[in-house]
Amino acid sequence: MTDRFWEQKSLDAMSREEWESICDGCGKCCLHKFIEDDDEAQEGPTDVIHDGEHIHYTNVVCGLLNTKTCSCTQYSKRTELVPDCVKLTKENLKDIFFMPPSCSYRRLHEGRGLPSWHPLLNRGKKTAMYKAGMSIRGRIISENDADLDNFEDYIVMWPLEDAD
Ligand code: SF4
Ligand code: SF4
């Protein structure tokens, strides 16, 4: 990988290794979220969002996430095991609106560059990301421990925050 390759090429033009390294490991895409319109919350997965609909994030996280490291315990089989797990690829960048504003893929896609806390700019370390409050670490509950009948009690705003 060349230095600051993300400033020289588009997401489309990145190698697999470069693409994977763009993920900052924040874990926000593993939070459960739902789409609500003026009438009621939608049930089940969807891949579109319409005018007047809003994405709500919760602090409930997928049961396959290691809540200490914030990494997927079944990364290679994730989309088989969790059908609504969003696997972002070059082919489905149109779905990037499902990602939180701080998602590094979304930032690059929207021309906002990588933030100063990104591991690529911090010798691969996540400490700056933790300090910036951009990781889910320490503020989540596993779906295995949550009361899913009262899903709305878990709505949180912090996944929508971003910092340069
Ligand atoms: S939200 Fe984006 S940057 Fe963060 S872990 Fe998910 S894919 Fe990676
Ligand atoms: S399957 Fe893995 S990558 Fe997908 S939401 Fe669950 S923990 Fe995250």
Bound chemical compounds: iron/sulfur cluster
Range of strand content? 5-15%
Specify the structural class.
alpha+beta
What is the global morphology? globular
The N- and C-terminal alpha carbons lie at a distance of: 23 Å
Biggest beta-sheet profile: 4 strands, mixed
Please give the radius of gyration in angstroms.
16 Å
| String of helices and strands | HEEEEHHHEE
In total, how many beta strands? 6
Count up the helices: 4
Average of the residue pLDDT scores? 88
**Integer tally of domains:** 1
Helical fraction: 10-25%
| Unreliable segments of 5+ consecutive residues | none
Compact description:
It contains four helices and six strands.
Fold and architecture overview:
It is a single chain. The chain is an alpha+beta fold and 164 residues long. It has one domain. It has helices at 16-22, 78-81, 104-109, 127-131; strands at 31-36, 54-61, 65-66, 71-72, 141-142, 155-156. The strands form 2 sheets. Strands 1, 2, 5 and 6 form a 4-stranded mixed β-sheet that branches. A hairpin with a 4-residue loop joins strand 3 (65-66) and strand 4. The site of one iron/sulfur cluster (SF4) has 9 residues, from loops.
Topology:
Blueprint: H1 16-22, E1 31-36, E2 54-61, E3 65-66, E4 71-72, H2 78-81, H3 104-109, H4 127-131, E5 141-142, E6 155-156
Parallel strand pairs: 2-5
Antiparallel strand pairs: 1-2, 2-6, 3-4
Protein name: YcgN family cysteine cluster protein
Pfam families: CxxCxxCC
Organism: Pseudobowmanella zhangzhouensis
